[in-house]
């Protein structure tokens, strides 16, 4: 298993919060930092750069890639993997977040660190340790219950060890242990909270040109439809291709052939995602995923296998996120039935125009 080693904290940005010591291990934060409640969190003996943390919360994929490259860190992985890596090294760089270091944290300290990473912070001491270790070491879209079936027993044994689970039993038994943790943790790790991604830290002090402030307001309050039609950077397409071909040699020949075919058509997949986002107000959820699959089938893509469909949806979601899409059902949950039916009819008509493309 890979481990991310801590590095020195970056002090290039202002607005540091120095935390007064309250125990041998922790510090109390006296400022309005905790976004989840009015109760302020405990921190370890470090300085927290709120301005930098705010930038990392709101950063898009290419922005985070550029910062990682500038800091000499790996720029590989999804936007959330990159974000976690940057927060670990630049914001919490003086903290030991290896597996052993995570186990040295108290219950409250573990919750505070989870809050800094912008993910769920509640739960038992063990659950917090599990969630933090998963967030630092895995991509939540790749380490899923479905993908556990592709792992060898040694890999599952290592996961059980790190997740503090029973280590005896057959491969199937170990897989069940890990699946139980992934199911109970749900979406508590692997993605920062939507409010942080959209708005960052309230009142974080950072020098931003007025033109950039205007752009941020447009991003939060309105959707720039034209931006979804722009071609994605080469790095995004390369990541998509790599994800499609990940562990392809472990699949059966039919699935291998299908994935290789789709990997050669990543640019077409990217264009389909952009077209769907333009017609759906920049939202990417289950209905958009279904539309993508139907559209791809109409174009003759080999999607007979559930494994292939799942991979295509996962890759498409990554692409949509890199384009600035709002991931999830969003406002649709709050519209009335009449409005819902109207939108369904509009989307059906829009889908038909897409099916006629090419």
Strand content: under 5%
Coarse shape? globular
- Judged by helices, strands and strand pairing, the structural class is mainly alpha
Strand order across the largest sheet: 1-4
User: So how many helices?
Assistant: 16
Number of domains: 2
How would you characterize the largest beta sheet?
Answer: 2 strands, antiparallel
Total DSSP E strands: 6
Helix content: 40-55%
- Write the element-wise H/E pattern from the N-terminal end onward: EEEEHHHHHHHHHHHHHEHHEH
Spans of 5+ residues with little confidence (pLDDT < 50)? 1-45, 206-223, 330-338
Task: State the distance separating the first and last CA atoms.
Answer: 45 Å
- Mean pLDDT, as a whole number? 75
Radius of gyration: 22 Å
What can you tell me about this protein's structure?
This protein is mainly alpha-helical. The protein has two domains: 16-140, no CATH class; 225-355, no CATH class. It contains 16 helices and six strands. A two-stranded antiparallel ribbon has the order 1-4. Strands 2-3 form a two-stranded antiparallel ribbon. The chain has a two-stranded parallel sheet with strand order 5-6. Helix 2 (61-70) packs parallel to helix 3. The chain is globular and about 55 Å long. The model is unreliable at 1-45, 206-223 and 330-338 (pLDDT under 50).
